[in-house]
Specification:
Chain A is α/β, with parallel strands linked by helices. Chain A is 45% helix and 19% strand. Chain A has one domain: Rossmann fold. At the A-B interface, strand 1, helix 1 and helix 4 of A face strand 1, helix 1 and helix 4 of B.
């Protein structure tokens, strides 16, 4: 069993989570058998350590983190590796890897470009 | 003539702009005749007022701002309208409108969901 965590920044307004939860809903609609959770760096629950602990408690041992960031920043280059080091130390046998941030994925870049063109037409 | 501004947050590291510039490049490859610029709220040039002034100086009178944000935040709900009010006051005859943020566009949400599924496969 593999699991995916959509890791996003978070904001003081809890509504900020809605697009992330919408992405999760689309994923579950397409692949109902997959385990996918959202997690946030700050302000919104669950945190990444909480989300990982919850998945591990449910028997998940392979987790892919997909950063919901446009680019690599201090959050993905420093905060995220530190959180993952702590998670690996805490959960024996856990395999966790980090995917390319969404803003550096060619298919996402193309979709944003198409959307921006249509929005400006 | 219509113009599009990709309005993003910005970060201290100028590399942060790369995905936004990649989106712009895809747009120009698909529609070479369109005028599209990037602008940033902070840290990276040009600012939104600078980008608007540059487009107006080149004869653009209709500008669509596409927020490169996952969700509506204080930046899109307060900072952006204030910047646009100032731009309208400064540039007579300018029509400027704001599109839905990328994270609330269904096609972008679907592309991110597909990418996240493939990343976690």
């Amino acid at each position: 069993m593999k699991a995916i965590i959509l890791f996003a920044h978070g904001a003081r307004n809890p509504d900020w989570a809605q697009p992330i939860l919408a992405i999760r809903a689309v994923m579950l609609a397409r692949r109902p058998q997959i385990r996918v959770e959202a997690a946030f760096l700050e302000f919104i629950a669950p945190t990444l350590p909480e989300a990982i602990a919850s998945l591990v408690a449910d028997g998940q041992r392979e987790i892919t983190i997909v950063p919901m960031f446009m680019a690599q920043t201090g959050h993905t280059k420093r905060d995220l590796p530190a959180l993952l080091d702590a998670a690996r130390a805490r959960h024996a046998g856990l395999t966790v890897r980090v995917a390319t941030p969404i803003g550096e994925a060619a298919s996402v870049v193309a979709a944003i470009a198409d959307y921006a063109l249509s929005a400006g037409a």
